[in-house]
Structure formats: structure tokens, C-alpha cells
From TrEMBL, chain A:
Native organism: Cohnella hashimotonis
Entry protein name: Carbohydrate ABC transporter permease
Entry-linked Gene3D superfamilies: MetI-like
Subcellular locations according to the entry: Cell membrane
Keyword annotations: Cell membrane, Membrane, Transmembrane, Transmembrane helix, Transport
Record InterPro entries: MetI-like, MetI-like_sf
Family, similarity comment: Belongs to the binding-protein-dependent transport system permease family.
Pfam families attached to this UniProt entry: BPD_transp_1
Record domain ABC transmembrane type-1: where: 71-261
Membrane topology: Multi-pass membrane protein
Annotated TM spans: 12-32, 70-94, 106-130, 142-161, 182-205, 240-261
Automatic annotation (TrEMBL), chain B:
Cellular compartments annotated: Cell membrane
Listed name of the protein: Sugar ABC transporter permease
Pfam families, alphabetized: BPD_transp_1
Gene3D superfamilies named among the record's database cross-references: MetI-like
Chief location category: membrane
Similarity comment text for this entry: Belongs to the binding-protein-dependent transport system permease family.
Keyword field: Cell membrane, Membrane, Transmembrane, Transmembrane helix, Transport
Transmembrane segments: 12-35, 69-90, 102-122, 153-174, 203-224, 268-285
Topology versus the membrane: Multi-pass membrane protein
Amino acid sequence: MKTRLLRQKTATHAILIALGLSFVAPFLWMLLTSIKSLEEITSLPVTIWPEVFRWRNYADVFDVIPFTRYFWNTLLITGLSVIGQLISAPLVAYAITKIEWFGAKWIFPIVIGTMLLPYQVTMIPVYLIFQKLHLTGSIWPLVIPTFTAAPLYIFLLRQFFMGLPTSLIHAAKIDGANDYRIYWSVVLPLTRPALASVAIFTFLYTWSDFMGPLLYINKAKQYTLTLGLQAFLAEHYTEWGLLMAASALFTLPIVVVFFFAQKQFVEGISLTGIKG
Amino acid sequence: MNKNNLTGFVFASPWIIGFLAFTLYPLCASLYYGFTDFNVFQSPRFVGLDNYRDLMGDDLFWKSIRNTLYLTVISTPVNLLFALLTAMLLNTRIRGLSVYRTVYYIPTIIPLAATSLLWMWIMNGQYGLLNKLLGWLGLPQPGWFSDPAYSKMSLILMGLWGVGNIIIIFLASLQEVPQSLYESASIDGAGGFRKFRHITIHWISPIILFQLIMQVINNLQYFTQAYFVISSSNLNQVSGGPENSLLMYAVYLYQNAFIYFKMGKASAMAWILFVMAGILTWIIFKSSKRWVTYGGGD
């Protein structure tokens, strides 16, 4: 019985490691390509390990495209979006879980409904609204909607608030606090782990977003990294070494964030996925 | 309005404003634009069903529907099954769970832009890593993204790399299945497959349903990866990949709206997509009554 269990565990590990390697290999290939010279990349047979390490590729990225500028543009949009969601989403989630009013029941089903709504349906009219406001070509169309609470984060925070004991709020009410005060000094401090998840997911989503900037940003000096990468691909489509170096630089902040916030990630994902 | 109603309204106002301005009004507006000839530079002109009639005779429209349905129908079950099997492997009481979880999850956080670039390079017909490995094994080495027979398969393969969050969701739900159920089933002499069907699937079916619907809806809106691959082969960005095999519905919609400025036609397409998504979701919900059981997990 014991040897069978051991054999089973070894087999499981073997499969997971083999599978894991195929998940890791593309990254290694990105990094290995990013330090190869163009000659080596375009010569056959294909080499795995670089013959010459061309670290200069990374410096060249900054010469070929204004990488630093794209980086700051992306960071600005991402930062404002995180602030937007952190302000709006918990307010709405609180309204539908902890306040007894006529909207408490029917807002949530609509929130779920909008999660299922393809964004293409609203894309064109929303674009035209921002065009009428003369805001296309600026970052505002990407930032303003984040202050209106995304359905996913309302959903996530609702799950969290449902777990907060109502007795806590009643107790604070008896002590004479009103809803605004309770929200600010009792509920929000308790919500920190869930807020961290919202912040991380917003960061991730905005950092990676391609469709939004593609629609609204039209001047190269306002480009985000995703747009920069796409333009770079179109103009320098043979320079794979540089492209891989740029991709690696683009990916690095995400991996760093993940490294420090792994627990929040996993909890946030489990929270949104479990109770459909 | 009593006091609570006012407070609730104030708290919910960010969402209410957003819903009116960015969802409800646009929903009505795009329905209307679908019946107009509208190129942004002039105001919309009502043309009845012309856009819809045009679309029915538009080969690229049908092509993009076929491409998107192909992707959805194959990619959705393949991704869910792969994620479920991997989650089950990770659910055995095993060492190094957090290391595995990290390894499988990290690809999903990589921006799709970078993912697409990376895989275009890995699947490069001439200099790609994948064909080098296939060469070692003595297998054929297709052109992947540049070959219409393989291009959609390439997207599906690339998609498998990003199933990490589905794995984590499945893993979390698998961990809530009571072990005692498996033990008593073993005593009753149930084999591995029967336990899988009658306990595992039964218990986590609500999560499978939720994931199935989200995957179908996401796949119907497949955009970034296809757009990246297409624009690498064509500088003016109005191509659909080799023999239009990568022209996804959302890409064609985008091209109509923002490259040809056919806002009316694009709006009609958006509504057709909406209806398609609605019908598919409805079918999945209807069928789910036969295989989803609630009350297990909660």
C-alpha cells in the first residue's frame, strides 16, 4: 500500500515537472533570444544557447523606441486607474451589502449582467462620447471609467463584505456613528486584503491593456508600452532580439509585483471564481 | 426619499453614473447606430436594415464568424479540461504546491502583447524553438502562424499557456470537496473514473459552469493576440492573416469601425455579437440543469 502511494506521488511529480518545464521554457527562450545578435538569430541551424552574449540589445531598446517615456505613460494610467477602482468599487459594494435601501437588491443582478456584456456593444458610443468631449487622444478616456467601479471588483468586494459581521456595524451605529464614518473608520480598514486584490488586478489589467490605448491614444509620445511594442513590431519586425529584450523589460514589473503579492493574487482569484 | 435610501444612493453613485453613461446609454446608442449609415464625420443617417443586409452578403463577416466559432468551440473545452486535470494533479497532497502554482500561474499575468510576440517567435517557421524541437523528434515542422491550416491551432496552443487562473480556481474548489466522500465511495468499490464523475464533477459543477460561460464570452471577443499576429504580417493593419484565417470577429469589427469608419456596420456587428453571446449563454444555462448541482459546495 505504501509503495503504491509513493509510486503514485513520484508519477504525479514527474508529470507536473514535465508540464512545468513547458510552462517555463518560453520565458527562457525569450531571455535567451533577447541576448543574441541578429546574425545569430537569423542563421541556421537554430542555436539554443547564445554563442555570443549581446547584452547591448537591452540598451538598444532605449535607443530605438522611447521606452522610458512609454514606461512612465503606462505607469501614470495604471496608477490613476488603481486609485479610481480603490475609491469607487468598495463604495458600491458597501451600498449593496450593508445599507438597507431600495437599490440594494437590484443593483447586483445588473452588475452580473454587465459582466456578461461584450465590450464591443458599448465600444463605439463610448468612443463617440469621449470624442464629443474632445478627450480622445488623451489618457482620460482610459482613466475616467475606472472611477465608476468595474463589475468584477464590485463582485469581489461584495463577496468580502458579505463575510463582515453586520453586528459590527450595528454596534458602531449604537455608538452614534453614521454610515460614512462607519465605512471610513470601521469597514475600510478591515477590507485591506480585498482592496489589495483589487489594486493588484487593476494594475495587471491596465498595465497589459491593449484595446483601450489602441482606441484612444493616437500620438506616439502618449503611447503605452503595449502600443509601443506593437509599433515596434510593425517597424522592426525582423529584429527579434530587440523585440524579445523589449518584451522582457515590459514583463519585468509584472513579475516583480507578482513576486511580492503572490498571496493576494491567489486569494483574489479564488474569491472571484468560487461562488459563481 | 428616506435617510437610508439617500445614503445608499450616494454610496452607489459612482456605479450608477458609470452604468448610465458607459453602459445603458451606449447600449441604446449602438442599437440605433446599427440602423444608420455613419462615418463619424457626418451625423448618422437612418437606413433601416441595410447594414444587416450588407453583412449577410459579406464574405469576410462570415469568415470571421467561422474563425471565431472554431476558436471558441475548440479552445474552451480544451482549456477547461487541461486546467481541471492539472488542478487535480495539484490537489493530491503534494510537496512544493506553491512552487507549482507559481510556475503555472505566471504566464497568465504576462501582458497578451508580450505573450503574442513571444509565441510568434517560438512558432516562427524557420527560426522558432518549437520547430527545432519537432525537428529533433523527426516530426513535420509547419509554418504555424503563417500557414492557414495551422494558424488557428497556433492561437489555441498559445492559449493553453495562459490557463493558470482557471487552474487556481479549480484547485480552490477541489480543495473544498470533502475527502470523506471519496473514502466512502472507495469502500463501496467505486473506481477512479466513477469517483471523478460522481463526486468531483458533481461537487464542482457550479464552478465549471461559471468558467465555461466566461470562457465562451471571452473567446467570442478574442482580439489582442490575433491583432498582434495579423499586424506583424501587414503594416497597414487591415489584413486577416494568411488567407484571412486569423480574422476574428472582434478584429473585423474593429477594422470596420476605426479603419474604414463604418460605424453603422460595426454597431450592427456588435449587436449580432451580443445576440450570439446571449444565445450561447442561454444554451449553456439550459443544458446546465442536467449536469450542475447546487448546494454541494455552499
